[in-house]
Specification:
By secondary structure, this protein is α+β, with helices and mostly antiparallel strands. The protein is built from two helices and three strands, in the order ααβββ. The longest helix is centred in the N-terminal third of the chain and has 11 residues.
């Protein structure tokens, strides 16, 4: 999907505003960023992701939740 955002934080908040259930994927109950979603910007992993990072027009953002289970 194509979204307008100036920072990674703004992008995450835009996704949350579209679907509130997405919030629990990114944040724990204390508002701390969970460590199991990997953020990629232009195919480069952001570890840990800096939500204040500025985004540029045309940046490709990929959010990959870690799969786990048995």
């Amino acid at each position: 999907m194509e979204l307008q955002a100036n920072t990674l934080n703004e992008l995450v908040n835009t996704l949350i505003s579209r679907d509130e259930s997405v919030k629990e994927i990114f944040f724990d109950r204390y508002g701390k960023l969970r460590g199991y979603t990997t953020f990629y910007i232009n195919n480069t992993a952001q570890n840990p992701p800096e939500l204040a990072r500025k985004l540029n027009d045309g940046d490709l953002i990929l959010l990959v939740p870690t799969a786990a289970g048995g």
